[in-house]
Every structure is written in structure tokens, then in C-alpha cells.
Amino acid sequence: MDLLTTSRMRAYQACPRLHQYEYELGYRLAVEAEELRFGTLWHEGQAAWWLADSARLEAGIDAIRRNSAYQFDAVKAEELLLGYDAMWSGEALTVLAVEVEFACDLRNPETGAASRTFKLGGKLDGVTLDAAERALIVEHKTTSKDIADGSEYWRRLQLDSQVSTYYEGARALGHEPQGCIYDVVHKPTIRPYQATPVELRKYTKATKDKPSALYANQHEADETPEDFRVRLRQSIVEEPGRYYRRGIVVRLEEDERDAAFDRWQTAAAIREARRAGRWPRNPDACDRWGRTCPYFDVCTRTASLDDPLRFRRAERTHEELSTAIQPVSTKETDDNANSSNSTQASDAA
Q: How far apart are alpha carbons 347 and 264 in whole angstroms?
């Protein structure tokens, strides 16, 4: 059986050809993109913060420094964690689990029959109890979008089936979630200054009181990590609400049912694409989140998946998960459960 995760579903929903490259053929970028690299580093620091019984900030900073290969990435992550600790360390939450994986049956929402092609799987960032002893899932996110209360970012969560999938995962682990703490951090948009090329430099006119100097928006030399740290810290201190937001996301029974159909029908579409041996392209997904799809040149036949400088083969389909929860793939298995048109066949699956 294969594992159906939120990441896998999103890849297929964005572009079936992208899904084929990553989840059927197992290709990944040879060098991680800067945005993904920083996200991974921040996640390491944040996980260490949540895991620590005491000295959380020290544990998180240590994790960042152990895992960072780029000094400016470390500075950004450290400063964000300083603000995060100041913002949330006083919250009355009892941590039950951090970075916990799950795998459970993917079920037909009409019949309750389990799929014979896919298991539903993933990883919860955390599970916690609040002051009222309600079990709450914790989901960490970083984003460059506006996260102010009432923004589109929060309204869109009403349609996002990921939280509903994590409800299923929490139940599979023995918890009955009453909500999800959606813990969002806004990624810094300020970047280190770079020296202005000599031919582009402009200087003010000297006066009796002031010598000639570079224009204020130009720079003699690259900014040092410590100078960048000072600027970033000031930005966070001045607008903490711009960088940190939390909200409780709840799911009603009808929300969970809609999400169950989303999962089931996506799984059916993946299996049908396998049967046909065709993975349609979606040109509307070639440019997402302000960057071009890493496989764009492959689809336009100007690059090859076999180029080791650009791509590598993953050791396993879901690299973010341990091998313990990844079922053995049986892509050729007949899965009558994916035919929701036949109640008899679905119940027999």
C-alpha cells in the first residue's frame, strides 16, 4: 500500500505531472531552495523549543545553530525564536506530543470501507492540553502572507482539509481533539544589505558641516550578520503582531465529511492516472508562491530529470516521515474501494 499525505494530495491537486515526478518517480531538487531551507531550519528550532521541559529558548537556539549551514539563516531563525519565546512562553499548555507520526485507514466516506491502495498518513507538529484540559492539535506554519486577524489567510483555513486530516491522525494516536492551535510565524521580508556596485554609487554634495557621503539607500560594504541581527530585532520588537499569530481552528462534522470526500476523490484520481499511465500538466501551477516550479524546464523539454546537478532520487517516497509508518507500495493492487459509485464494491474493499 501507499501512503496518502497532505503534501502528496496538494502536489496532485496543484499539478498531476508534479505529483508524478515527486511521488511516483521519486525526484527531488538536488539543492534545496532558499525558502524551503529556512523553513526547515526554523522548524528544527521550533520543535526543540516545544520538546524542552525547561530552558526552551536555549534548546531552540542550540538546535538552530546545530542545523544551520548559512549564517544569515541562523540569525533570522534565532531572532524569530527570541520573539516567539517572549510571545508564547507564558501560555498555559501541557505538551503531550511533538513531531508525532500517524498512519491509519483511508476510508470511503459513503460506506466506511478502507482503501486497499492507500493508507492515510502524516506527522502532527504537536498535541497539547490547554488550561481547560481540552486536547488540541498544534500546527506550525511560516508564511510571507498577511496574518492579521480577519485576513484572507485565516478565512481560507475554512476550506483547508489539512486540519481535518490531522483530526483523523490525532484520533488514530488516541486523542480526541477539540480544536487545532494554528501557530503562524511571518517570515522576515527584510534582507541583508549588499554593497552598492561602484559604478552605481551616488554621493551627496559636501557642505561646510558635512562631508560627501553615499545616499542613504546605498552601502559601502555588505552588511554583517550582527548588523542585520540588530535591524531584524528592531523590526520584530516594533511589530510583534505582524510576526506572530495564533488561532484556534475547529472542525464541525460537516467540515470533516467534506474533507473526507476531498481525500477519497483525490486518491481515486491518483489511482486512475496510474491506470491510464497519464499525468496531465497544469500550466496554471508553473508559477506559485512567487517562484517557478522546479520541474518547469523538464516539462518544457529544456532539462532532464537525470541531471544530477538539478535533481536527485529520494531514498523513500515520504522523506519527512520515518520508514516505520510507510507501507510497502503495491501500486498494481486492484482497489475497488476507490469506486464510490458501487456501494457493494466499496464495502468489500
A: 14
Of 59, 138, 124, 145, nearest in space to 91 by CA: 138
Asked if residues 164 and 179 have their Cβ atoms less than 8 Å apart, the reply is: no
In this prediction, what percent of the chain has a pLDDT beyond 90? 76
Closest CA to 242 of 146, 111, 168, 102: 146
69 secondary structure, DSSP code: S
DSSP 119: E
pLDDT at 325: 74
What is the C-alpha to C-alpha distance for residues 175 and 214, in angstroms, rounded to an integer?
61
- The pTM for the full model equals 0.84
Residue 329 banded pLDDT, cuts 50, 70, 90: low
Cell of 249: 481552528
Task: Name the strand (E) or helix (H) holding 34.
Answer: helix 34-51
- Average pLDDT for residues 272-292, to the nearest whole number? 93
DSSP state of 348: H
Contact in structure between 316 and 81 (CB atoms under 8 Å): no
- Local confidence band at 302 (pLDDT 50, 70, 90 cut-offs): very high
Q: Could you give the CA distance from residue 7 to residue 105 in angstroms, rounded to a whole number?
A: 17
Domains in the chain, start-ordered, CATH in brackets? 2-190+234-339 (3.90.320.10)
